[in-house]
Specification:
The complex is a heterodimer of chains A (335) and B (433).
Chain A (H helix, E strand, L loop, with lengths): L1 H31 L6 H12 L3 H18 L1 H10 L1 H23 L6 H29 L9 H6 L5 H23 L5 H31 L4 H7 L1 H23 L2 H23 L2 E3 L6 E2 L7 H31 L4
Antiparallel strand pairs in A: 1-2
Helix pairs in contact in A: 1-2, 1-3, 1-6, 1-8, 1-12, 1-13, 3-4, 3-13, 5-6, 6-8, 8-9, 8-12, 11-12
Chain B lengths: L2 H40 L2 H35 L1 H10 L1 H23 L6 H30 L5 E3 L2 E3 L3 H5 L4 H30 L4 H35 L1 H7 L11 E3 L2 E3 L4 E3 L2 E3 L2 H7 L20 H30 L3 H6 L2 H10 L2 H15 L4 E3 L3 E2 L11 H29 L1
Antiparallel strand pairs in B: 1-2, 3-6, 4-5, 7-8
The chains are: A mainly alpha (335), B mainly alpha (433).
Chain lengths: 335, 433
């Protein structure tokens, strides 16, 4: 029971990280495809939208890592070894994105350095979701190598393959799509709104294509993803619903029905994650000694109990303050 | 460079970088809250200007601290999977509490930075204070985990595995509180003097600037009080180290042979090879007193520790001496400054004293040098152990070869970021002028 509860909190943190911080990275990705029209205005909207919240959003990642290493230390340790390279690159993205964004905002002098901050901000906004996606793909694919089998086998193959790349791209597109949908409601300028609506529509199509690519790549890398989905009712269901939601979502985006579009887009991403979690369950990742599951890699019960007390206690403090933060910047602003 | 050395270097660089931002993140919000409180009470515009100027510093330092802290939480696994595999479930509790405190800090900072004219004034002030309080708490929680590496408790180590885990006992290990308090004071001392140093430069350039004078007073008062308390806390920590990690204390003091009574070595360059000390001089019996509160006490030397388990003596001794020298100097400087600041007409007599301003301007970086030296003592002094007496650092390192590459990458990135942050601060400062 304790194990499943810890896994649930882990899943929830990853979900919230994707829904909130994912969109912050997505906004960075979007910045690279801003149209020439009203460029400055669009950038201002992005700055204002993620400025007050990105640091709080980022903490979900820290929380996820902490839960992982407290509750499932064996899996954390194995992941850190196998995915050392993509995780390092992901961290590089985390450092550069956060710093560049803050520097851009707070630099007392506006000069050519702004262009540098923006370039780094955009590049690193691609890097982190790409690498996160590749690691997630690697966990599902489950290739492992022993250290004795050589560097490539142990530290490169598990993630440097077509399937992982496809998942990485899919993650980038999905995050950018989330960002575009969220941003529609962040501006009252109708022309800029129209631009974000357009981006959201294009990215939605791209997400479907990238999703198809993931399935195709999986077959090539010997992962029968489609039949795996068929085999798990929850995964199949979540994918079906995610696909069906496209219709009302499309309508909501077209009409610029901000809140509806936000909720539907978030549900869609949530369903994608839920589908993945179900396929993964209960395995966290493979290891040369066999699969590490949430049961075999779990910490002793005393640790899990204290962790859950901390998580529940923390939630009582965090959620009200988080709602307050979102309310003053995301609700009151529009009034 | 061996992989172990590369991993240790990367960890040292990452910690050494993060610690500066973490320390500023702990202390700076309080400086900001003092200025903000004064603004709300007196409505003198200088306090508002100061609050806003300092809050930009807080924002830049917090963001950089947050991302470099994230890097560390991953690096624990990326570099030391053998450690985290066992330690994760033992010292996870302080980390999960730290996560909560850090979360609150990030939320409160968002409210504070973007909340001008949007949040009721006193609630806004409170959000700034919450940033500081959560900063202090996150620091304390992380140090609980570090303390556990120095004084492991709350588990039994049987056949290379941790059993009977008691997270509560692990978190409140014997080293946690003393280390935590020492670090918290160090954050206030280093930040206070650094900020005072910056505004001292401003005052040298413009002796009549009300802005710099106000800022200087607040920052220097905070730094000075912390600097004067620090020797007391440092003494308590040293006495505890003498009991918990005698080899660490012996290396700090270059005490090769157990002595009763033991003299205190001032200065000097120890050689591990010959077990001798060049230069430097001894004060008889003083080490016995400092370590055990008794002039006749025996102090354990390195001879009681197997040669392979010695921490690197030269590094330890030098880092410790640097920390002590700076700490003593700042405590004295703090005393003088407080006297100058709070004497009647203090602002006139003390602040127009250009010599004093120069000294404080030059002392700006000293607190941070002492803080880095202190962490060098803590971390190097635990070597060759990662969990003192339980697991060797060499047994915890990742099996991935070629660690010199990520080490170079992170060193480069951190050097670059240090450069940019310094440059930004200079631009910030010029802009205020």
């Amino acid at each position: 029971m304790w194990i499943k509860a810890a896994a649930l909190f882990l899943g929830a943190s990853i979900l919230l990280y994707c829904l909130l911080a994912g969109a912050d990275f997505g906004a960075g990705i979007l910045e690279s495809v801003l149209g020439k029209e009203l460029r400055a205005e669009q950038r201002k909207v992005i700055d204002r939208a993620i400025g007050p919240v990105w640091e709080a959003n980022h903490v979900w990642l820290i929380l996820a890592v902490v839960i992982l290493f407290v509750a499932f230390p064996g899996a954390y340790s194995a992941m850190s070894i196998t995915f050392h390279i993509p995780l390092t690159l992901m961290l590089l993205g985390v450092i550069l994105r956060g710093s560049a964004f803050t520097f851009r905002h707070y630099d007392a002098v506006r000069d050519r350095s702004q262009a540098w901050y923006s370039a780094i901000f955009v590049l690193s906004s691609f890097m982190t979701p790409l690498m996160l996606g590749m690691v997630a793909g690697g966990m599902l694919l489950g290739l492992v190598g022993r250290v004795e089998d050589g560097f490539l086998q142990a530290f490169v193959r598990p993630w440097a393959n077509l399937f992982c790349l496809a998942v990485g791209i899919f993650t980038c597109v999905l995050f950018a799509f989330l960002a575009a949908v969220y941003l529609i409601g962040e501006t009252s300028n109708p022309a800029v709104r129209q631009i974000f609506i357009r981006r959201a529509q294009i990215l939605n199509v791209m997400a479907i294509v990238a999703g198809g690519l993931v399935f195709a790549a999986a077959e090539r890398n010997g992962l029968p993803l489609a039949s795996l989905f068929m085999g798990h009712a929850l995964s199949l269901g979540s994918m079906t619903v995610a696909t069906l939601i496209l219709i009302p979502l499309w309508a909501a985006i077209r009409k610029g029905a901000t809140s509806a579009a936000r909720v539907l887009a978030a549900i869609q991403v949530g369903l994608v994650l839920a589908g993945w979690f179900r396929l993964q369950f209960p395995v966290i990742l493979n290891s040369p000694e066999g699969p590490l599951t949430i049961y075999s890699a779990a910490a002793p019960e005393s640790t899990l109990r204290y962790l859950l007390y901390a998580l529940v206690g923390g939630s009582v403090l965090i959620f009200p303050s988080l709602f307050y933060l979102l309310r003053i910047f995301k609700v009151e602003e529009r009034q | 460079m061996t992989d172990l050395l590369a991993a240790r270097t990367q960890m040292a660089v990452s910690l050494g970088f993060h610690i500066v931002f973490a320390a500023v993140g702990v202390a700076m919000p309080f400086l900001m809250a003092i200025a903000h409180w004064k603004w709300l009470r007196t409505r003198q515009p200088v306090y508002l200007d100061l609050t806003k100027a300092w809050s930009k510093g807080v924002a830049i330092f917090f963001a950089t601290g947050a991302v470099s802290g994230t890097v560390l939480s991953f690096e624990l696994g990326l570099l030391w999977p053998g450690f985290m595999k066992h330690a994760g479930s033992i010292i996870g509790m302080p980390f999960s509490w730290e996560g909560t405190a850090f979360f609150l800090e990030a939320i409160a900072l968002g409210v504070f930075l973007y909340g001008w004219n949007r949040v009721p004034p006193w609630l806004h002030w409170g959000s700034g204070l919450v940033v500081g309080i959560s900063g202090v708490l996150s620091g304390l929680f992380v140090i609980c985990a570090n303390g556990w590496m120095n004084a492991p408790s709350g588990f039994d180590w049987i056949d290379g595995r941790a059993v009977n885990i008691d997270p509560w006992a692990a978190m409140f290990n014997r080293a946690a509180w003393n280390q935590g308090l020492h670090m918290t004071l160090a954050s206030f001392c280093a930040t206070g003097f650094a900020v005072a140093g910056v505004h001292a430069i401003g005052l040298i350039k413009r002796p009549n600037s009300l802005f710099h004078r106000t800022a200087f007073r607040i920052a220097l008062s905070v730094g000075a009080i912390a600097a004067m308390l620090q020797p007391l806390q440092g003494d308590r920590l040293a006495k505890q180290t003498a009991v918990l990690q005698p080899a660490k204390l012996a290396a700090m003091e270059s005490l090769f042979e157990t002595a009763q009574p033991a003299p205190l070595l001032i200065g000097g360059i120890p050689s591990e090879e010959t077990q001798t000390i060049r230069f430097g001089f001894h004060i008889p019996r003083l080490l016995s007193f400092l370590a055990h509160g008794n002039f006749d006490a025996e102090v354990q030397g390195l001879d009681r520790t197997e040669r392979e388990n010695w921490p690197p003596v030269l590094v330890m001794h030098l880092a410790f001496q640097v920390m002590i020298a700076i700490g003593t100097f700042l405590a004295i400087l703090g005393g003088f400054s407080l006297y100058g600041l709070w004497r009647r007409n203090a602002t006139r007599t003390a602040l127009n004293e250009r010599r004093m301003l120069r000294i404080i301007a030059l002392s700006g970086p000293l607190g941070f040098i002492a803080l880095e030296a202190g962490w060098t003592v803590t971390e190097t002094g635990r070597q060759p152990w990662i969990i003192y007496g339980v697991m060797k650092t060499a047994d915890a390192v990742t099996p991935m070869p070629g660690l010199v590459y990520p080490m170079t990458l992170f060193t480069g990135v951190y050097l670059f970021l240090s450069f940019v942050v310094t440059w930004l601060m200079v631009r910030q400062f010029r802009n205020v002028d």
